[in-house]
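Retro notes (design track)

What went well: tokenization of the new backbones is finally stable.
What didn't: we kept losing track of which sequence belonged to which structure.
Fix going forward: every design gets posted as structure first, then sequence, in one message. First example under the new rule, 113 residues:
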């Protein structure tokens, strides 16, 4: 992979993170239990976010140590392989609390490109 590929993956991460955050605007945690499409959509977006992170080269990941690569990829793996045991509270907190600062950090990285 090339640096160009890493930039594409970083853009995928920003796009999916923004979409997930936008989906929970005007929503509450309880909506995940009552809106199956919301739940499935958010899970899928976080899976794609994590897959894009996993595809950033080791050199690219080392270049941006402020991004918690291991945790992002780990969450993706947990959602994929533990599909029948998704903790919706963790999913919600990830989107509501963790993604906004990650979006900001990724946007800063992409501005440098």
């Amino acid at each position: 992979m090339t640096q160009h590929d890493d930039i594409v993956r970083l853009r995928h991460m920003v796009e999916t993170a923004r979409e997930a955050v936008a989906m929970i605007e005007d929503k509450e945690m309880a909506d995940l239990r009552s809106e199956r499409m919301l739940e499935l959509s958010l899970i899928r977006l976080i899976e794609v976010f994590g897959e894009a992170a996993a595809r950033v080269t080791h050199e690219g990941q080392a270049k941006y140590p402020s991004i918690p690569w291991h945790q992002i990829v780990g969450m993706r793996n947990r959602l994929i392989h533990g599909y029948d045991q998704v903790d919706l509270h963790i999913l919600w907190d990830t989107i509501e609390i963790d993604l906004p600062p990650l979006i900001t950090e990724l946007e800063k990285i992409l501005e440098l490109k």
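Added context from the reviewer: The two ends are 17 Å apart (CA to CA).
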